[in-house]
Design a protein that fits this description.
2 copies of one chain form a homodimer. Chain A has 338 residues and is α/β, with parallel strands linked by helices. Chain A has 2 domains: 196 residues, Medium-chain alcohol dehydrogenases, catalytic domain (Quinone Oxidoreductase, Chain A, domain 1); 134 residues, NAD(P)-binding Rossmann-like Domain (Rossmann fold, 3-Layer(aba) Sandwich), CATH 3.40.50. The first copy, chain A, is built from 12 helices and 19 strands. In chain A, strands 3, 5, 6, 9, 10, 18 and 19 form a 7-stranded mixed beta sheet that branches. In chain A, strands 13-12-11-14-15-17 form a 6-stranded parallel beta sheet, sandwiched between helices. Chain A has a 3-stranded antiparallel beta sheet with strand order 2-1-4, with helices on one face. In chain A, helix 6 links the parallel strand 11 and strand 12. In chain A, helix 5 packs across helix 11. Strand 17 of chain A pairs antiparallel with strand 17 of chain B, so a sheet runs across the interface. Chains A, B: Keywords: Metal-binding, Oxidoreductase, Zinc.
Chain lengths: 338, 338
Amino acid sequence: MLGTMLYGPNDIRFEDVAQPTILHPTDAVIRVTAACVCGSDLWPYRGLQAHDAPMPMGHEYCGIVEEVGSAVKTIRPGQFVIGSFFASDNTCPHCQHGYQSSCQNREFVGGAQAPMLRVPLADGTLVATPEIPSADLIPSLLAVSDVMGTGWFAADAANVRPGATAVVVGDGAVGLLAVLSAKLMGAERIIAMSRHPDRQAIARQLGATNIVEERGEDGIARIRDLTKGVGADSVLECVGTAQSMDQALKVVRPGGFTSFVGVPHGVELRGEDLFFYHVHLHGGPAPVRRFLPDLIAKVWDKQINPGLVFDLDLPLAQVADAYRAMDERRAIKAILRP
Amino acid sequence: MLGTMLYGPNDIRFEDVAQPTILHPTDAVIRVTAACVCGSDLWPYRGLQAHDAPMPMGHEYCGIVEEVGSAVKTIRPGQFVIGSFFASDNTCPHCQHGYQSSCQNREFVGGAQAPMLRVPLADGTLVATPEIPSADLIPSLLAVSDVMGTGWFAADAANVRPGATAVVVGDGAVGLLAVLSAKLMGAERIIAMSRHPDRQAIARQLGATNIVEERGEDGIARIRDLTKGVGADSVLECVGTAQSMDQALKVVRPGGFTSFVGVPHGVELRGEDLFFYHVHLHGGPAPVRRFLPDLIAKVWDKQINPGLVFDLDLPLAQVADAYRAMDERRAIKAILRP
């Protein structure tokens, strides 16, 4: 089959790769209905993160189960399933605490930008929908696989509560869905930091009540001003750079909560600063598996439509175009159809 | 009057200082019944923290109100009161959220190692006992002014829950009272990191179920072993060094909570590490004022006896001896009587 490989900076190839098979009795192989390009795929694409080359790409997926290993008990061929970027057994102590992305047996799921995908620990990782979804639900079901689950974790980890003032740093797909998540959790005021009119419009559509275009010290001053000098209750950092983290920590009120859900690149924090910020800080790879049943149900019932972050819909064979469009910020997020 | 001044490393002088007076209408002046030396006093004493010299020392105190300013409404002369190291108005947004040590009008209370002390924002800062306490209660009432309140915050910020496994890093007075606090909050297993037999004995008396003597990588391995490789639910970092923070972050389970309550000195944290530790991190200057009513009541009702951390009882005039004994770790904590 043809799958997506990254050879080096800006070098995405759609080429012959081995068809996945059951390697362990707990595996499933799924036929991918839709996959997409993640903001985190852009780090190695831009040469900003070391990686093996060539590397199979893609970790967001939904599709139909083709085959399962002999030890798989609950997932069955023919089901439509959604999983997350870390396979998890969903039974170890970390999973039981709701941190499936730190599962003691976790395994990164790579190679989803392809027609077929092997998913380890299928029973723990995959969640089946009630039936085969209609086509209009596919983008939103795909979104819960990572970007919506990550936005939701950003709001959850930042302890968004009814009536809260929340700030979302970052207007990528995760940031936009973090706005939606904060809204669903009852935030009264949601300040989105964004400089792009098209993304501002989506942020407003999803629940943002204020937009701050300024960055750095100016952005911090603007938010301090909007919160009457108090700072926000919850700050959702959805970028992962030193600048975005600095902003996120300087606009939270003492005793407030800052979450961070993008792998930090070049972020160094001084203990003394964190001490006097008096912030609750929590982040990490989103334990999407914890949220999948609830988020799938919300999509199924059409309470939420996170698929609207996909503003570029391409056949999988044009995956290189999808990377280019996202790298150049011409697209928020690309959905790929095998 | 004679008060305590720090001139430079190891240079504590008990010398003539101005008697405090009401400077602002919201001030009170109290006659200090007892004060003490804080672990944090040792940073500048050891020359490890820049400071103005000479600097009036002491920020833990209890005593009888001598005089109040014209705007003070609830605190009255003759009351026995306890306050914290940060004066707070107890009405601003940060105070209302329970973060009085980040009060918008906070003011550091210095100079408590003296017979008389000016306390700003008296109504917001001081809490009076039901009546004048008997002598046996004085050490424990003094302890809630900082060291017990800080140990309590360590447990609170580390989200200690009934049945939890907690690790306490540091066997100073705060660490020991963090053990007591974790016990009171229902931790089932409390692992105290301590290399000193006398302190281990106190830790056990206060509720520690396990002692780990090893430090650094060995200590981390030992705790991983004791928790079957899972890590602890709650880790209470009560030291403030790079090594102690490193230990605290490496023994918490993913999704667990690490608190830090001593001003970090030389602590740098990599964002990527915090991301993959998956830890909840919270710390800062303990908002002791939040806990004062409850902790005073617990002492008054003899439910707790945090005063047992005082193992050196000296007349205030011997304050330099108290610093020396604590610096050389001959004493856990010294109480000073004017």
